[in-house]
User: Which sequence fits this backbone?
């Protein structure tokens, strides 16, 4: 039985075609608004998305795909949490459009959390177990999935208003992926009013090899309250 795409889940054409045919698309069908030029980071992400086996993931988890397409917010959040816990990189093209385009704040934040969980579980395969007291990642091998093309998605996440969640997840991924191009962005996040955001920025900068001190937050500064649904999204 063929699945129909719910109205709320209008994936950009490039991702729909990945799932159905695996075919490449013409530039006008790329992610983003048609009038916007396609930059190098976006092109790299789209090539990466095309290389993933999204159809394998859909075929392997039909019940999960059905929940993701539900009109019920809670079912969609459960599906996103499950995808994140699976660590399945082939599911990334399903998650990214929700991260970037979803109008429901709760669903969007959980999608960002799911993407962060996928990145974390994969990057931690390189963790140096000789340093259990801190996170030390070994160099990538040819067998490791290179998730650095997510740089475009992370840039878009950082361009959103600081909600105390999205920038936390973006900073975590930037640190684990070692994306030094974002050093200036991480330093700007050190000025965030959210302690969770500044902590994540410090963590990212240190993972990238920069020396940076913890940023104190006076108790008079009101920090953002993280989204609470069956527990807070993990930092």
Assistant:
């Amino acid at each position: 039985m063929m699945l129909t795409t719910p109205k709320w889940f209008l994936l950009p054409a490039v991702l729909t075609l990945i799932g159905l045919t695996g075919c490449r698309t013409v530039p006008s069908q790329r992610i983003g608004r048609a009038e916007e030029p396609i930059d190098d980071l976006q092109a790299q992400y789209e090539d990466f998305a095309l290389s993933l086996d999204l159809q394998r993931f859909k075929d392997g988890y039909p019940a999960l795909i059905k929940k993701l397409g539900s009109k019920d917010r809670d079912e969609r959040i459960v599906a996103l949490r499950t995808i994140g816990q699976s660590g399945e990189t082939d599911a990334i093209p399903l998650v990214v459009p929700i991260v970037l385009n979803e109008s429901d704040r709760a669903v969007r934040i959980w999608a960002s959390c799911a993407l962060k969980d996928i990145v974390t579980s994969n990057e931690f395969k390189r963790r140096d177990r000789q340093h259990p007291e801190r996170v030390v990642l070994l160099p990538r091998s040819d067998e490791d999935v290179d998730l650095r093309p997510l740089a475009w998605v992370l840039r878009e996440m950082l361009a959103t208003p600081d909600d105390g969640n999205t920038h936390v997840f973006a900073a975590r991924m930037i640190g684990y992926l070692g994306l030094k191009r974002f050093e200036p962005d991480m330093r700007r996040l050190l000025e965030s009013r959210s302690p969770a955001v500044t902590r994540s920025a410090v963590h990212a900068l240190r993972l990238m090899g920069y020396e940076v001190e913890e940023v104190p937050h006076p108790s008079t500064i009101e920090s953002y309250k993280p989204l609470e649904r069956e527990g807070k999204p993990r930092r």
